[in-house]
Amino acid sequence: MDAAELQKKIYTLVETNMGKKKMKSGDLKKAMVAEGATEEEFKAALRELVDGGKLVYSYFGGSFIEVPHTEGSANPQQ
Amino acid sequence: MSKDVKTPMLDDLEKGAWPSFVKEIKKAAKRSNTAHDLLGILERSYRDKVTHWKHGGIVGVLGYGGGVIGRYCDLPEEFPGVAHFHTVRINPPSGFFYTSKAMKELCDIWDKYGSGLTNLHGSTGDMVWLGTQTDKLEPIFAEITAKGWDLGGSGSCLRTPSSCVGMARCEFSNIDTMSICHTMTQKFQDELHRPAFPYKFKIKVSGCANDCTAAVARADMSIIGTWKDNIRIDQAEVKNLAKSMNIQEEVVDMCPTKCMSFDGSTLKINDKDCNRCMHCINRMPKALRPGKEKGATIMLGGKAPIVTGALMSWVLVPFMKLEAPYDNLEALIRKLWEWWDDHGKNRERIGELVDRMGMRSMLEATGLPPVPQMVKAPRTNPYVFWAPGEVK
C-alpha cells in the first residue's frame, strides 16, 4: 500500500474514533493489515505520523494513539 | 514558591535509624521550588488521606511513546512548584555500572531541568528522575542523548531490560547477563520506545538461581543462568570445610530435592535429581562449582498484582544455550509477542493470557515442545492438552 495513503487511513481511523474509543497501536495494525498493508508498512507509517507530530502516544492505564490535543487534566504551565 | 508550610507528619518520618526520604527532600527544597512544594503537597496528602496526584495523559518527547510518566497535582494554585511533576526514566547501563563522570553529567542535567530528586533505581531498573515540567522534557531529552543516554520504557511496551552484575563481579554467573541485557535493549529499540503491546513486558536477566534481579517474581520473561552437566566437586575442600561447618545440617538436609549425601568425608550428588537451586554452592563456594555446560532457563509470566493477582514465572525452556548475538532468544521472544499481540486483551499480561488461553495455544504459536519442567507445581494440572489430531 502507498505510504501516504496508509498514513491517511491510520490518521482517519484515529480521528473518527476520538471520544468514542481509544485506539491502541495493535488495534490500528489489525485494521490496516485487514486493508492490505503489511505489518512493516504499518509500523513505518505510524512512526512517520508520530515523528511528524500528527499523532501522539498517550497513557491511560495502557498506551494509546491519539490526535494531539490539550488535556483537560493537564495544568497550565506555571 | 508557595509560602512555607508546616510538615509535622513528614517531620515524624525523619525520626528513627533509617535514612529518611523527607530529610533528602528538605535538602533539595533549599534550592528547588519543585522539591519545596513536594513537601507541602505530601503533607497535605497525609492529612487528607487522599492522593493529590493526577496520573497519565499525553506527556513525552516527540516520537517516543514511553520514558516519561505524566504527573499533575490537583492543587496547582496552592502548590505551583508541583503543578507539573513528571517523571523521566533514563535507561541505565547493564548491571548498573556508571563512571563517576557519567553520574555527574547526568546529575548536572537533572539539577538544571528538574527537582534534583532521583531514585536509583526504580523497580523497572531505570534511573528515575522525579519532578519536572512539560516544557523541560525536550531539552532534557536533547541533553541526555547528546551524552549517549536514552530514555527507558513506560506504558504498553517492552520495559527497560535489566540484569544483575553478572560475570563483571560475580563468580556464580552462568551467563553473560550484561551482554544479554545490552543486546536485547539494542535489538528491541522499536518495541521499547513505541508502545505496541497489549500491556507492559519486562525482561530481567539473572546469572544464576540466586536471582539477584528477582526476575521470577517481577519479569514477564525471566532469564536465569544455569548449567546442564554435573556440579563440580572439590572433595579435598569438602573435607576442609567439614572442620568449620556442619555439612549434613547446613547443606545436605537443606537440599530441596534431597539429591545429596555426605558420609563425613565424601560429598555425593545425584545430579539427575538436582534442580540447580544454588543452595549448596552458596554454602560451599570453595568446594562446589556450577557445571561447565552453561546456559539459561527461560521462564515466563511473572508479574505483580495490578489488574489481576501476582504470578511467579514458570519454566518455558529448561535449558537454552545463550551465545552472542542471542538470535535464538530473540526469535523466541518475537514469537511470544506475536501470539500475545494476536490474542491479548488491553492490559492483559502475557502470563495472564497463558492462564486464559492455555499452554497449548502458546506452545503451538511458539513451536516449543511441551516438557515436564513446564508443570508449575507437582500434582497440579499441567494444562497441556493434545489436540485430537495429535493423538495416535
Can you offer a commentary on this structure?
- The complex is a heterodimer of chains A (78) and B (392).
- Chain A has one domain (3-66): Winged helix-like DNA-binding domain superfamily/Winged helix DNA-binding domain (Arc Repressor Mutant, subunit A, Orthogonal Bundle), CATH 1.10.10.10.
- In chain A, strands 1-2 form a two-stranded antiparallel ribbon.
- In chain A, helix 1 packs across helix 3 (39-51).
- Chain A is elongated, with a radius of gyration of 13 Å.
- By secondary structure, chain A is mainly alpha-helical.
- The model of chain A has no long low-confidence stretch (mean pLDDT 92).
- In chain A, a hairpin with a 3-residue loop joins strand 1 and strand 2 (63-66).
- Chain A has 3 helices and 2 strands.
- Chain A has helices spanning 3-17, 25-34, 39-51, and strands at residues 56-59, 63-66.
- Chain B is an alpha+beta fold and 392 residues long.
- Chain B folds into 3 domains: 8-146, Alpha-Beta Plaits (2-Layer Sandwich); 162-226 and 295-390, 2-Layer Sandwich (Sulfite Reductase Hemoprotein, domain 1); 232-289, Alpha-Beta Plaits.
- Chain B has helices at 8-12, 21-29, 33-48, 100-113, 137-146, 177-187, 189-193, 215-218, 235-242, 247-252, 279-283, 327-343, 350-357, 359-366; strands at 53-55, 68-69, 71-73, 86-90, 117-120, 127-132, 162-163, 203-206, 221-227, 232-233, 260-262, 267-269, 288-289, 294-300, 314-320.
- In chain B, the strands form 5 sheets. Chain B has a 5-stranded mixed sheet with strand order 7-8-9-14-15. Chain B has a 4-stranded antiparallel sheet with strand order 2-4-6-5.
- In chain B, helix 8 (215-218) links the parallel strand 8 (203-206) and strand 9.
- Chains A and B meet through helix 2, helix 3 and strand 1 of A and loops of B.
